Amino acid sequence: MVLAKIKKVLAKNPKFELMELPFIDVTEDPVRPELTLEFRQAYGRKIYGIKDEEGDIAAVMCFAFTHGIPKSVEEMDKLSKDAAMQAIHRAGVQGNVAIAYTVWAKKKGGGKHMVNEVYKMIKDSNHLSRLVTLSPLTDMARKFHLKNGAKEVQVNLTTQNFEYDIELDEWEKFRDRAKGWFNIK
Is residue 40 part of a domain? Predict the structure, then answer.
């Protein structure tokens, strides 16, 4: 009986591995299929996927790194180019705002798990201070982000922006202070 409960709990919390992807089939992207692979990899932009327990990619998310919040794909392109050029003079540190401009699930529930894994990655980074989306102006995108804990930042002409709060929780701040007291890294 107890073993069955433990198995049930473990079954509800599947393990995912966040990884940078060197290649994707852009035609699978239901949000922005018009963006080429070259665009998604230029100027420090990155493509991430989460691998599930079976070794399959469950979801994909594409990022640009900027110093501001873009209102369009064209503006995101300019802002990420600018951040990439500035990074040359900043030891490769590019932009403090991670802009998630497309996400799609290849398996049921993959999108939510992708957001959770990316959230952890950004929260643990040393230079990223914000996780913001550049989402299409659809009800589906709005509901997805609000349901997953984001706050609406602004609605633009053809897009909308949502932000996921990545501030450290009180216990995390205390943990970090305690590590300093005991010289733990």
Answer: yes
Burial class (CB in 10 A: 0-12, 13-18, 19+), 92: exposed
**SS3 of 99, please?**
strand
Other Cβ atoms closer than 10 A to 154:
12
Paired strand residues for 130: 97
In eight-state DSSP terms, residue 10 is H
What is the tally of structural domains in the chain? 1
State the DSSP code for 42.
G
C-alpha count within 13 angstroms, C-beta hemisphere, residue 112? 11
Range scoring the smallest mean pLDDT among 70-79, 92-101, 155-164, 169-178? 169-178
Taking only the tens place, the pLDDT of each residue in 18-59 is: 999 999 999 999 999 999 999 999 998 999 999 998 999 999
CATH number of the CATH domain containing 24: 3.40.630.150
Coil vs helix vs strand at 141:
helix
* Within-domain flag for 10: no
pLDDT tens digits, 96-146: 999 999 999 999 989 889 988 998 898 888 889 899 999 999 999 999 999
Domain that holds residue 97: 16-181
